[in-house]
Amino acid sequence: MQKNLFILLSLSISSIIYAQEKNQQLDSLLLNLETTQQKDTLRINNLMALSNYHFLKDIEKSVPYATEAIGIAQFLNDSLKTSVLKTELARIYVTRGLFKEALVQCLDAVTILDSIKANPEQKIQAQNILSTVYRGYGNNEKSLETALKVVELSKQLPVDDKTVRYYYNLGQTYTQLKDFKNAEKSTLKALEIAKQIKNKHLEMIMTSVLGDYYKNTGDYDKAITISKSSIPYYKSKKQDRNLASSYRILGESESLKGNYKAAIPYYEKALEIYDRTGNLHYAKITNQNLYIAYSIIKNKEKASLANQRYNVLKDSLDSKERKELLADMQTKYETDKIKSEKDIAEKQLQISNLEISKNRNLFIGSSIIAALILLSSLIYYSRFKAKKQAEIITLELKETQKRLAVEKQYKDSELKALKAQMNPHFIFNALNSIQDYIVLNQKHLASDYLGKFADLIRNYLHFSDTGFISIPEEIQNLNLYLELEKLRFEDALEYNFNIESTANSETIKIPTMLIQPYVENALKHGLLHKKDNRKLSITISKPSEKIIQCIIEDNGIGREKSKAINQKRQQQHKSFALKATTERLDLLNYGKERKIGVEILDLKHNDEATGTKVILNIPIVNT
What we know:
The chain has 623 residues and is an alpha+beta fold. Helix content is 74%, strand content 9%.
């Protein structure tokens, strides 16, 4: 008893001393900032010391200090310092999962470095963060291009801890592209360098990354073993962000093994750290994982709570205000850049005018060769003016190209965000569809039913990050979805697939999750209101070398009767899937010569509704 009391007292005293040391460190940093009120390099250093302190403790508080430091660097006209600080602010935003804000800072930093002709050592940090930002947006091809450029630049520099991060970032991008062979190769290279320079911290991080890699390749037991081995080190070093990552990988590995009860404690531990440190991006992902796990083990209350927290975080990250803020920041960025280039052009024009004036004065003083000087001056002025016009045209062309690139990137980001909204919605609908059947029907069927649902979830997770899917894969997913719905309809549903042989090819690709919402709409609005004789037909053909045609036909009650039924309800039903699909089609068709066409026909016989037919004409994407 006395021994336990002594241990408890010792721990309490140690905690108090540690807290006092932290407060003393923060007080010292704040005092240093108070003593440097002048806008100079010393104040910038003190601001960044405070920013780095909060980066490890409470990252959200880092932003104001880094922002003020950037303002001082701009006031001092120190372009190199400004680019370095903007790169650091981008790193803070990336750590919090705010990729839109990070992109603006990264593009600004890279533009500054290009304008001052920076050396590889100065460029490489901004490029490395930019690669991470592209990966956060889902533009993995651009991320890979930038990451490979960073690794190539690093070969001109001495090997150090930064080199480890460059290969780690490359490995993460390969993982996103499902190129697991190159992902493992890059990560092992990073681990080798960490051991070579004897950096234990980076060695442990790369070991954890390998755990995530083995999770992605299906070696779940190996992933669990590696992730558990890193936890004591992160706890001893009080590295909460890395600790949360290990817990998240453990939870995902257990979930993929089907051990949802074992996964939940790891998710909860990771979520506590993400909430405390302000990492909105991973907090959203972890809440989504918790929703799925709690739903499968039938804990409705906690599943609902996780779903609510997920929606709040999703709305916060994708809110209209944040999009408008990003647009304002991008507009200001382009405006300031054009203004700066205009000022330079005006100064050059002033210099040119002075030179012309000087030539004219010389012409007056040289009367003997006046005719020759006049002719020479006219020729010189004409060529100079033509050169300036050519430079202005070139500048305008470059600005137009940059603006179009930013617009395309913005459209790609909107498309990624919309797909991220559609995919969770599809999972939630599937969960709701199977819940009643599991509760009300025979329990021995539940295992088979959940097995099919697990296959559907696995397929969804596999294709969630891809933009396109082959026809055979799409048919497989639709068939699995309809099997689940047929059980929900208590087998009172008859459906068939008519696939033309020329269309049923692995090389023919169509956008992911394009056909399923129309099939879902046929079931929920057309066939659900019929008591029997429910029939659904899906026909896929290839009418030309460039078009895939999909026809979805049902013998339901028709759109008019379905609308009338919905209007009688207290709250009129609105199909999120079709609304989101319509918005997604607008984005997919944006700037394309060949567009996806949709035609919805009401089938009638003697003015009596006999069903609905949807015709999709989809341009082929060959691989």
